[in-house]
Amino acid sequence: MSDHFSSALPSSDSADPRSPAPPPPESPSSGDGRERSGGTRRGFALLVAAGLLWGTSGLAGHGLQAAGVTVSAVACYRLLVAGAVIGGFLALSGRLARLPRTRPLMVRLLVNGLLHAVFQYCYFASLTLIPVGLATLVKIGSVPVFVAAGICLAARRAPAARLVVSVLLAVSGLALLIGFPATGASAADLALGMACALGAGLTFSVMTLVNRTPVAGLDPLANAGLGLLVGGLLLAPAGLAAGMAVPLEPAPLGLLLYLALVPTVLAYLAYFGGVSRASDAGAAVGTIAEPLTAALLSMALLGEDMTPIGAVGAVLLAAAMGTDYAAGVLHRRRRRRAARRRAPR
Asked: Which of 10, 156, 220, 304 could form a disulfide with 272 if both were Cys (CB 3.0 to 4.6 A apart)?
C-alpha cells in the first residue's frame, strides 16, 4: 500500500470525517470553515489522482490482450487480485474482524460489487466492438453529465454555475480529444459498442453518486477492497466461460499485477477516499484526468499523434479540473472577507 494514500484515508477506528454535522456560521476564530475547505481540496486531489492512475490501465490492458488474454479474464483478474490484496491486508491487520456487520454496510458492499462487475463487463464488451480510444472516451465523457444530472435530481435543484461550467468544459474537451475516430465496425456493432460504453459510464456515475453518502463504520479501504472482491466473484462465471488462461511469462504476469495493484488498488483507494469529500463539480469532473493521461501516454509510448483539435481538447480538460479548484479558492476568500466584516470591533 502507498503511504501517501493511506495517510489520506480515514481510519475505521475514528469518527468518519466525511459526514460532519452541519457547521456553525464561520467566524474569524472558528476553524470549521478551513477544515471543511481543506477536506474538499483533499477530496478533489484524490479524485484527480485516481484519474491519473486509471489513465495507465489502457496500456496494461492493451498489452495483456496482445498476449492473448481474453477481455473477460482481464476484467475478472483485475477485480479479484485487487480485492484479494486489500482484503488480505484487512484480515491480517484485524480491521476485517472489527468491521461492523450492519445491514447498511452489507448492502453498500453488495451494491458496489454489482456496480464494479457491470462496469467492467460493459466496458470490456465495448472494446470488442469499437476502438479502444472511442470506448474509453465515450465512457468517461458521459460521466460528468450523468453525475451532474444525478446530483441535481437528488437535490431537486437546478445546477449551480460552478457545476455547469465544469461539466461543459469537460464534455467539450472530451469531444475534441475523441477526434471522432474512424471505425470499420458495422452500424449495428457501432451502436451496440457505443451503448456498452455509455452503460459503463452510467454505471460508474451511479457508483459515484451512491458513495457520496458514507456508511457508518465503512472506511474507504474496506469499501474499495471488499467491493472489488465481490465484483470479481460476480464476474468469475463469465471469465471462466470465455477462458482465464494467462501466459506464464514475465511480461504478461507483470502487466496483470500492475493492472491489479496500481490503476485498481491505489486508484480505487484514492477514488473512495475522495468521492464523498469533493464538491459537486469536483465529483463530476475530478476523474477526467483519466482520458488526458491515456492520451499523453499513448503519444509517448505508442507513437500516436495528437491533432491540433485534440490539443485544444486536452487544454479544456485541464481547465475543467482547474475550474473547481479556482472557484473554491474564490469562495473561501469571499467567506473570510464576510466573516471579518461581521466580527465585532
From this structure: 220
